[in-house]
Amino acid sequence: MGGDQTSEHSFNPFTLLLSLQCVKFSTKACMTTLWSVGVWEEDNMADLVLQTEGGSGGIVIEDNWPGYSLELFSYPAHYAGDLECVVVPHGVIMDRTERLARDIMDDLGDHDIVVLCVLKGGYQFCADLVDKIKVLSCSSDRTIPMRVHFIRLKSYLNDQSTEDLHILGAEDLSFLQGKNVLIVEGIIGTGKTLKALLKHVEAFKPKMIKVAGLLVKRVPHNTTRLPHYIGFEIPNRFVVGYALDYNEYFRDLNHICVISESGKKKYKI
Ligand code: HPA
Ligand code: MG
Fold first, then answer.
1. pLDDT in tens, 186-197
2. What is the DSSP string of the chain?
3. Is the CB of 238 under 6 A from ligand 1?
4. Cα–Cα separations (whole angstroms), residue 119 to 102, 203, 257
């Protein structure tokens, strides 16, 4: 057996710390979301504890969670002063992604899938998720043959969502017809982007669409359809790192952090 065939899973003190101090696993089944193309209930979105069909709504990070001090972690020196706190440390992201990969394997094992990676913010999560699915495909008797396709969406200027949504690389997705599609997004904020993308992808008549989102923000009056696979449900604050940017900066940061006011000013356009 090759060295990459077993999943390395060591005890992570930050996972424990996070679960003890700031994270409440949601036990409240407040909504049922069924959406394998066309079967979808959109209800009760005012209740901001998220719950998806057959899975969890992700690890809930409460609004009053102050985050970890930056002093506790290493991060690139060029961002000194630009960040307020660490919301999700890199190790915790990796541990959660490993579990999402297992959930995906349980649901989709032995189906061919097309992974649709939403750039740029989704590239790191997508790469790590695909890696972890590959490891599971090597170490179990089930496997998921994957093809990976990239599309690019752009709708944010500074920390504001604009009406101007651009979808690049998605002009002809006719190869998706009859396929099982897994859309992989780094963050779902207002949900407008995901809604537009789903409409676009559905037009190519895939057999099934599932969505994996690393982060879902608790945005008031959000009418978005929730991903099937959610990493973390986070407060409605602008976060950066792990490929999420502010005007193209901070993608080269491993942890998910809150940007400081001086960081916003420094990189504002
Ligand atoms: N950070 C980066 N990109 C985003 C965010 C965010 O908080 N919300 C939506 N796109
Ligand atoms: Mg962005």
1. 999 888 888 889
2. --GGGS------HHHHHHHHHTEEE----------SSS------TTS-S---TTS---EEEPTT---B-GGGS---GGGTTSEEEEEE-HHHHHHHHHHHHHHHHHHHTTS-EEEEEEETTTHHHHHHHHHHHHHHHHHSS----EEEEEEEEEEEETTEEEEEEEEES-S--GGGTT-EEEEEEEEESSSHHHHHHHHHHHTT--SEEEEEEEEEE--TT--PPPPSEEEEEE-SS-EEBTTB-BTTBSTT-SSEEEEPHHHHHHT--
3. yes
4. 23, 20, 19
The token duo for 200 is 């676009």
Q: Which atom of ligand 1 is nearest to the CA of 156?
A: 10
CA neighbor of 158 nearest in space, from 46, 238, 43, 65? 238
Q: List the structure tokens of 185.
A: 């997004």
Strand duo 229-234 + 256-259: pairing? unpaired
Which of 238, 252, 267, when mutated, tests ligand 1's pocket best, judged by the most ligand atoms within 8 Å of its CB?
238
Residue with the two structure tokens 């940007």:
259
User: In whole angstroms, what separates CA 53 from the centre of its chain?
Assistant: 17
Task: Give pLDDT tens digits for 117-176.
Answer: 999 999 999 999 999 999 999 998 889 999 999 999 876 667 777 667 778 876 789 999
Q: What predicted TM-score, i.e. pTM, was given to this entire model?
A: 0.81
Tokens representing residue 162 in the block: 């604009």
Mutate to test the pocket of ligand 1, among 158, 187, 249 (most ligand atoms within 8 A of CB): 187
